[in-house]
Specification:
Strand order of the largest sheet: 5-6-7
Distance between the termini: 40 Å
Structural class: alpha/beta
Radius of gyration: 18 Å
Shape: elongated
Helix content: 25-40%
Number of strands: 7
Largest sheet: 3 strands, mixed
Length: 112
């Protein structure tokens, strides 16, 4: 995208949900200028979105998957979704598995 966002003859197709404070969300929301790798890039390309294409597990599916680990991971970082959803998943990991989960963007450890 770094090399095509500033080209009016280009199109960018964004699929699925774009979380707050992400480049994808800024583009979907109509930003005219974005920063990529520290460089300001003008948005001249057409931005199109297709919703509903997320293909990851929900909270129950992720907890089920984690529950099958033979050994608890040393660290768990929750890095996907809005802060409220990340917090809920981290809290569920703590409650159901008794593991600590960190949300690194906020540099916080969710404990109950």
């Amino acid at each position: 995208m770094k090399y095509n966002l500033d080209r009016a003859e280009c199109s960018i197709l964004i699929t699925g949900f774009q979380a707050e404070r992400t480049l994808g969300r800024r583009l979907v929301d109509g930003a005219k200028l974005v920063k990529i790798f520290g460089q300001d890039i003008r948005v001249k390309a057409a931005i199109y979105t297709i919703g509903g294409l997320s293909a990851h597990a929900d909270q129950a599916g992720l907890l089920n998957w984690l529950g099958h680990f033979e050994k608890a991971p040393e660290k768990i970082f929750v890095v996907h979704g809005e802060f409220s959803n990340s917090t809920a998943l981290a809290a569920a990991i703590q409650q159901k598995l008794n593991w600590t989960a960190t949300i690194p963007e906020y540099l916080s450890v969710v404990t109950l």
